[in-house]
Design brief:
The structure is a single chain. The chain is α+β, with helices and mostly antiparallel strands. It has helices spanning about 5-15, 20-40, 45-55, 70-85, 100-110, 120-135, 140-145, 150-165, 170-180, 195-215, 230-235, 240-250, 270-285, 315, 320-330, 345-355, 370, 405-415, 425-435, 440-445, 455-460; strands spanning about 60-65, 70, 290-300, 355-360, 375-380, 385-390. The strands form 2 sheets. The protein has a 4-stranded mixed sheet with strand order 4-3-5-6. It is globular, with a radius of gyration of 22 Å.
Length: about 450
């Protein structure tokens, strides 16, 4: 049995998904819709919005928050890009899973017209996430130079799409073969407008792969393990025990123990130090003026993501630990607007960046695992006090160990959704998306976040 066929059998045969995993995915979908509605209003979100609108296409699938429709692949592309535009979407397993997954599934649901329930979407998401997270296990995206979100995301999203389309195992394997040749996304795109496009491209390519396979499109049955196949190209070897891999899928499912909802709209590698600084400033009632220096420990010599000590725009600022901590010192928080328009260049924040110093750990000291555990900080105050704090990545609020509190999740959704919807629209969307599993027709939920041209002209 080929790996593609083994995965396909899992995709089509799965019947029961544990309640805990459905809960985790339902929260992620709710969170992703909010992130999407906010991301649509970013500079690169608007650019993609305008581009897709100008391209036209049959008005079957919604570009969310924008008040128009287009074809399924283009809607998935736009919505996937929006979802990742602020780096406020979920993470875990293989980067940012829901940004490509949910937009592709919603586009397929609208393309089909009716009959797709909220539970159908949740199960398809769980199945797709499970496959992609399994394939990504042990993959180092920085050593291999490819961003794992689109590389593995297109495969997982294709599995979810195939499930929703009701493809056979043979068709699903063909869809994976098609999608494997569309896996792409260079790591160097971090901190540019291209990175959000990775999620959009994965969503679009997964929809195309599924629809082509539905029409009879085929590809190599050994696309993963063959010479010149996916594993050799992206992982660097073909050594994978197909039977063992397939047997692990869903035993147990990974969603509940992996998905992470973000508190801050920036690279997750910032979150340990940002959380530690927020804890200290709030516990000791500190202002930025009282802080003389913040030392961030455990920084790598050449960070593959936090590579912008002096960011030149908002995209780079999301990948600058100096900027993130400076913004916390100045504003006492870290939100979407801190990375928008010209706020990233606020002179007060720029000056505060001079207070942040990274203590670099040589690549020759410490294991990769120790470097990924988080960043302790030392804060030196002007009155001579020295404070220390450390929030390990495993203990961050938003992760499986410490889930984002319901009130915080709701507040995040409302703030994000309000950037694309009027107040009454936000309330309707909240009701629809927080209880997705009870929705009999997901197209009705999509209708709550379609937006309108009139509202967008007013908002602009």
């Amino acid at each position: 049995m080929s790996l593609a066929r083994g995965i396909a059998e899992f995709v089509v045969s799965t019947r029961d998904v544990p309640a805990a995993d459905l809960d985790a995915v339902e929260r992620s979908c709710f969170d992703t819709v909010g992130a999407l509605l906010a991301g649509r209003t970013s500079a690169h979100g608007r650019l993609v919005d305008d581009h897709v609108r100008e391209q036209g296409g049959p008005a079957r699938c919604s570009v969310l928050g924008s008040g128009y429709r287009t074809d399924a692949a283009s809607a998935a592309y736009a919505n996937g890009t929006f979802a990742h535009s602020d780096d406020f979407d979920d993470m875990g397993g293989y980067g940012h899973p829901s940004a490509p997954l949910l937009p592709a599934l919603l586009a397929v649901a609208e393309h089909l017209g009716s009959g797709v329930s909220g539970m159908d979407v949740l199960v398809a998401h769980c199945v797709g996430f499970e496959v992609a997270a399994g394939l990504c296990g042990g993959y180092d995206q920085y050593d291999r130079c490819f961003h794992s979100t689109p590389v593995f995301g297109v495969l997982g999203t294709t599995c979810g799409v195939a499930r929703l389309l009701g493809l056979s195992a043979e068709q699903t394997a063909a869809a994976l073969a098609i999608a494997a040749s569309a896996a792409a996304g260079l790591g160097r795109a971090t901190g540019t407008m291209v990175k959000p496009l990775h999620a959009g491209q994965a969503a679009r390519n997964a929809v195309v792969a599924g629809l082509l396979a539905r029409r009879g499109g085929t590809g190599s049955d050994t696309v993963f393990e063959a010479r010149g196949g996916f594993l050799e190209a992206f992982v660097g070897h073909r050594a994978l025990d197909t039977e063992a891999f397939v047997a692990r899928l869903g035993n147990p499912f990974r969603a509940a123990r992996t998905l992470f909802l973000k508190r801050f709209p920036c690279c997750g590698s910032n979150h340990s130090a940002v959380s530690a600084l927020l804890d200290l400033t709030r516990a000791h009632d500190l202002t930025g003026e009282e802080i003389d220096e913040v030392v961030v420990h455990g920084m790598t010599e050449t960070s593959p993501v936090l590579r912008y000590p002096s960011p030149a725009d908002g995209c780079e600022a999301k990948f600058s630990i100096r900027y993130a901590l400076a913004a916390v010192m100045v504003h006492g928080s870290l939100g979407v607007d801190d990375f928008r328009d010209e706020r990233w260049a606020d002179p007060t924040v720029v000056r505060a960046m001079d207070k942040v110093r990274g203590e670099v750990v040589s690549r020759w000291t410490g294991s990769g695992a120790s470097k990924r555990r988080g960043n302790p900080i030392t804060v030196r105050l002007r009155d001579g006090r020295v404070l220390e704090a450390f929030v390990p990545r495993s203990d961050l609020v938003g992760g499986p160990k410490v889930p984002l509190p319901e009130e915080d999740l709701t507040a995040k959704f409302r703030d994000n959704a309000a950037r694309s919807l009027p107040a009454d629209g936000v309330a309707r969307a909240e009701r629809a998306w927080r209880s997705l599993r009870s929705t009999q027709d997901v197209v009705a939920a999509v209708a709550t976040v379609e937006g309108s041209d009139a509202w967008q002209r007013q908002a602009s």
